[in-house]
Fold each of these.
Amino acid sequence: MLTGINNEWQGSAELIGTQLDTSKKYPEFLRKDIQMVFQDPYASLHPKHTINQALIEIAKIHNLDNISERVGKVLEDVGLDAKFRYRYPHQLSGGQRQRVAIARALLPTPKLVLLDEPTSALDASVQSEVLNLLKELQREHNLTYLMVTHDLDV
């Protein structure tokens, strides 16, 4: 429901100041305000698209301006320099892929980021790096996270 992927739900909820219920279609404007980081950084990126292509696609979907600058900035925000723009997902480590997935979610400047097991496919040291990055980004961008995890330590 929160992602707008499935509108088959019952009841009501208030989300970012907007009342949602089963009688209304999912509001278009919320699609920019709510973004998602999927569990598997390997499956969430198109294997034949460069990182640049993947991020530009999101910027175009949300009608963002200054796309090139935004892509560079969001990659910098997640700790990836400009050389990563023209790489393909298979050329990145799991942690780097998850950073790209986080960058993709941050590009439209959301208010709420849904995190579905964002570290489950990563080893322990990279998990820690990604969790620290998420904390830092939360402070910098004034984000709200809703995280699903089965790992109580996370």
Amino acid sequence: MTQQDRPILIAHEGELEGERWVLDQEQMTIGRAAECDVVLPRRQVSRHHARIERIDDGYVLRDLGSKNGTYVNGQKVTGEPHRLKDGDEIQVALYVKLGFVGADATVPLELTGPYKGLRIDKPAKRVFIGGQELSPPLSPAQYRMLITLYDNEGEVVSRDDIVEAVWSDEEALGVTEQAIDALVHRLRDRIAAIDPDHEYIVTVRGHGFRLENR
């Protein structure tokens, strides 16, 4: 199995945002200690916090008796290890968020020939503008919004649909217009850092937003 065939972890937030770790060993330990395979140097993280183990048909995450806990998609991992699947969000001590990208989703998007525009490799959750990958990766909220617009390219997506796609049911109750606008602003800034000459996300006043791809 080549490195490209291995699953990866991607840091989603904070000073480690965008950093990637290839799961290229049978077991990989996550923790604060320097000898860990995935080093997260924060006091909230235990020295040996959690471990990802390869099994016959996939990978599992095991908490190593950490002080502040290990969570997958908001659920605490206790006792039996959690079987990981592509797209899982791992929270270490509710401090560091790591995205798990499955082995079948790590193959890079092949881009041939010169072209402009936005392209998304959905299995790998990778975004390309004019052939250049957005790095560090978008935050989970930014990605969920972009993929919603991308899947409805050229059509207006309402603010209600954006809220439903980006936030959980509980979170959605408190989402304000300002929060939506702030998310759009951050997403535009990320895209404009690569292609400042085209407005990809258009505001349709009174209705919502539309993706205008090149």
Amino acid sequence: MSEVVREEIGEVITRLVQEYTASEIFEDWDLAGLEAQAAQLWPLSTSLSEVDPTRSDREEIARTLTDDALAAYQRREQELGAELMRFLERQILLQIIDNRWREHLYEMDYLREGIHLRGFAQIDPLVAYKNEGFEMFRELMNSIWEEFTRVIYHVEVTVEPADFEPEPAPAQAVAYSGGGPDQPSALAEAAAGGAAAAGGAAETVPASASPRSARGNGAGAAPENPATVVKADRDKIGRNDPCWCGSGKKFKKCHGA
């Protein structure tokens, strides 16, 4: 990539010089604008204010700017190292191509939608689509390398040492709450079960000792120590038995009504 990059940087500068020196008259050349634009692409260390119109031409100006840009590129490579510079060349170029290519596809779709209108101007839409698509592709390639030239000189790189280890995050104390008198926390039960297994002492817990187990036996499960209820004789009379008051009526028709 190194040689390709240097060639493309020279092409970018040549197109830039042609853009700002399009006129055939030297007084119409925008050398100040050319110098300002070049300074945005790379750290410019030369000046175009002292260009001699009698001895300088476009090729000479392009050669001067190209030498300055390649010298800055060489300093950049010495600063970062050859291996890191090759990595940056690949990654930056791939990222720019990815973004620019998607934009190009949108523009081609837009061109295709309206290319049939060229027929009203007696122009073959197919030929117009090929010509304009080729021009758009050429502009795409030029814009890719122009953006690459701007980015490669100004990208900031932070190199971490090889033995760098990120500091572990501080441990945070997390308090879990849950359960109640009738519903103990599941985390507490799991911790208690793990402690029992680690100690090697397996203990059998009666079903009546755990509220959770008592609920599992059904809603009508009796408690462990039910209270003793003493009933009177009158509480033992059936509804169809004679009433205890001696009226001769059934209990359900008398005092049981």
Amino acid sequence: MPDVHVSHLSKQFGDVAVLKDVSVTIKDGEFFTLLGPSGCGKSTTLNCIAGLEQPTAGSVSVGDTTFVDTERKIFLPPESRNLGMVFQSYALWPHMSIADNLAMPLKIRKVDKAERAARIHEALDKVGLAHLGDRYPHQLSGGQQQRVALARALVYSPSVLLLDEPLSNLDAKLREQARAWLKRLQADLGITTVYVTHDQDEALALSDRIAVMSEGDMVQIGTPREIYEEPATAAVAAFVGRCNFLRGVVAGRSGREVTVRLDCSGDEVLVLSDHAVVPGQQVTLGVRPERLEVLPVDQAPPAGSSTVNADVLTVSYVGSRFEYDLRLGDHIVQVESKRRGLDGTVRLVLDPAAALLYPSVEVPSAEAEELLTV
């Protein structure tokens, strides 16, 4: 399967810049996800690759084939790109049987009848629905319809598979099952896949690499571990998973050890950071709830950690853990812990290596802050 090259891609709708000079190479056989909130440009990027949108500037190529190049005035129509696409709505023809739905793209490509039958059976077999070819879409569950849409996208052996939020119409439990099944299928086929979603868990579970998009830009591209554990900006940390943000000022520095005085409580905490921050500089401290610990006030914390006193506001049991909301000065901090039954004043424990440190100019944007509890 070929690489997908997107170079300096821009898209304007009137005065609105939906994509801003986006460049990325999606590797052969890679499961690559475009992740971000509504309106960030992820579906527009996918549609430019598919040929459903014509970019204002830039180029898209797959392998040695150029799909679009605005400078050279090249634009291949969608039907000439040999791409498989699955839409959020599945877009199955309701008046056709499942087999006839799969036959349509083969008829357009003038595949003879005998080969059509073999390809349809093979594609349905890949998605576990070979026995349902005579049924109609309304006779299938949502999960089965999603598999049919995927089989139709695979039946003509596309060079790249494009998936636009294909699991969003499924309920939570079925979405988890479909996610695991889709990952196995993509790995078995080895097909280069570009996936669009706003669901962070989905992106982390499925992807080889993720591009986090915001306001038409690719803010960070990396593996799921890099995106979650080493977010490049506070906005990425806010969007991918939950994160507490505490503003403060650098009180001192020695090598990688940075002492931060928190604005919300006046407490000082130690963090490890490679950022070039200096004493007196305003910073934002980010800590994920599972990287914090909460202890009774009379229990000694681990050596080398920073501790501050906080008050328990609420505690929720969620099966595998407890979720605490703590008041730290004038701020609310979320903590995930195995400890049960803590109330009143407690120790909030921070491992210096667990914190993310950002210059204050990198506070989360409005779209990311909607996801925060502050």
